């Protein structure tokens, strides 16, 4: 009965995703087994659930809104949403926050599919390794965001409460252990097949988990996170370096930075290590990442919401291509640049785009904004996954989880934490020169944190990075106060506490 229940959910999830499911599964050798279709379907569902990261409601927002990169101003009645977005930026969220609840549900749904795939007797070694990679990935995110993980073993009956309940200090070791055991069984892959869990992806995820391990180990007995400074052991940093080297094999930096996020990124980018695949006929809501920021009168018409913080914009040199750039097939179509948008905005003919509420006045984005009462032009906007104008509501941009530049910076950080700043400097300057920025003469850990922001802004890494470097609780634009250490992890949603007595609310909530 258990398999039928979970499998039905997988079938419903993938009814409109047949071609992608076939593409994912065609990369796996199928055994002659009565159960193999069940394993295929459950594994496909675990992959497809990754699309929950790419919209403006779930876990991506928990990594960006509380950071020094993003905010969500209220504009009259627009974007008030009962204070949900303000609470994320102000670090005043509560266990009933809608974004926290939806993130919990989406992450645990993916974890359930990954576990279910492993319960079928006909599963191949490659399928098993991919399912374990996804289990490790979902476990890592749950650990990072919520500080504890509750899960069933593969094949365990759903009528019972989950038997495995891991504290923050235990969950990170578990996620590492299961992935290391299956790493050799992951398939080889290329940047063009980065939507399939592969050895490069496994190595990159292990590097990221070892890099953050010190943060999760710094937890009080009652589950309260410690603020650091954290103890990054030489052994863990050696693991980061080794796994990063393996993850970077057969990947090169993309010449045009924004091609890593465009409609053809899955075909042209040489940087991609692990992604969630989208096509013009099926996919998630990746277009919402641009729609949520763009103004109503821009094309595509946006919802005039999320903005970039001044601290982010000011980190860039003028010639750094990552800050803003014209993109053929995008800028010439409707005047939009990719990256951070500041100042007067024009259409494809150079004519002014006008404000909605003030006739005959040009739209000009400003660096300042108010969380509680912004007018429509306030705040810089961001277009990272620029739109495919042939299919603006179903774009084919693949969502990027892991890519080469991230791994390079992880290795540089590990080297620097071991005291080898000379080797780290070479890596960082290689990246900076590729992006049109000047080379550093020397390097500090603070430089590396800033470089991660320049390279990875609005990609879902910033909260995690700031916590690791000890800057997350500091005051930023729109938040004048230093916040308490308990907000380093989010609360367990109230409905989930009521459903599972093995869960314990995180301290401070």
From TrEMBL:
Its main location: membrane. Residues 309-509 form the RagB/SusD domain. InterPro entries: SusD_RagB_dom, TPR-like_helical_dom_sf. GO terms for cellular component: cell outer membrane. Residues 1-21 form the signal peptide. It is found in: Cell outer membrane. Belongs to the SusD family. This is RagB/SusD family nutrient uptake outer membrane protein. The keyword Cytoplasm does not apply.
